[in-house]
Amino acid sequence: MKSKNVADFLSTYRLVRWIGPWNATETPVVKSWSERVQWNSDEPPIELQFFIPHKRNIRGAVFLVHGFHYQGADHPSMQRLAAALANAGFFVSCPNIPDFLSLRITPNVFLQLEKCFEYATRLQQYPNVKTSILSISLGCLPTFELLQKVEFQAKVSGAITFGAYLEWRSMLTYLLSSEEK
User: Fold this and answer.
1) How far apart are CA 26 and CA 66, in angstroms?
2) Are 132 and 155 spatial neighbours (Cβ–Cβ below 8 Å)?
3) What is the C-alpha separation between 122 and 43, in angstroms, rounded?
4) What is the Cα–Cα distance from 151 to 166, expressed in whole angstroms?
5) For 63-100, how does the pLDDT look when each residue is reduced to its tens digit (9 = 90+)?
6) What is the CA radius of gyration of the chain?
7) Do 65 and 95 meet the contact criterion of CB atoms below 8 Å apart?
8) In terms of DSSP bridges, do strands 46-53 and 90-95 run parallel, antiparallel, or are they unpaired?
9) What is the 3-state secondary structure (H, E, C) of 92-145?
10) Gap between the Cα atoms of 166 and 112, Å rounded
11) Which one of 79, 128, 161, 181 has the fewest beta carbons within 10 angstroms of its own beta carbon?
């Protein structure tokens, strides 16, 4: 097996090992830190969390966008997913979008995400690595907006959205009643 194939296999194995239901209580050991991103001089800065592999080379970059939740990137599931991605060899950045944390949808959400994405792609310092975007739930709203802007397209290798898909009626029903339809 060629060394790239072996590395791809090991990266996939590490990811599946940590995100599968058979290992729901543990989190892989990775290096993590957070930084503050100033997006508007009138507003407080945004926390942007970073995760990188511990004692492994970085193979790619993932910008992880949380959904409409008061814990945002601090939600245990998001922390676990970010750590699993980093353990598989990714430079992971995950913003805490202030308006989503406050359970508000405003036009600021778009600018908040854009500023964090710009900062994260500058910080990763891997010139030949484009960033993949993984958005959860309502995180797809600002993600789709970012993806359609020409200035960001050259920096993105692809995007995956999971849940919500802007189906307002079912999303609001779920948020207001905990009843899925």
Assistant:
1) 21
2) no
3) 22
4) 24
5) 999 988 899 999 988 998 899 899 888 999 999 999 99
6) 17
7) yes
8) antiparallel
9) EEEECCHHHHCCCCCCHHHHHHHHHHHHHHHHCCCCCCCEEEEEEHHHHHHHHH
10) 19
11) 128
Q: Which amino acid is at 177?
A: S
Which of helix, strand or coil describes residue 50?
Answer: strand
Cα(46)–Cα(98) distance, integer angstroms? 7
* Alpha-carbon distances of 73 from 108, 110, 153, 169, rounded to whole Å: 18, 17, 24, 25
Report the predicted TM-score, pTM, of the whole model to 2 decimal places: 0.81
Helix axes 76-87, 3-19, angle to 10 degrees: 160
Number of Cβ atoms within 10 Å of the Cβ of 154: 7
Separation between Cα atoms, residue 112 and residue 1, nearest integer Å: 44
* Per-residue pLDDT tens over the stretch 113-131: 999 999 998 887 666 778 9
- Label the pairing between strands 131-136 and 90-95: unpaired
β-strands 90-95, 156-162: how paired? Answer: unpaired
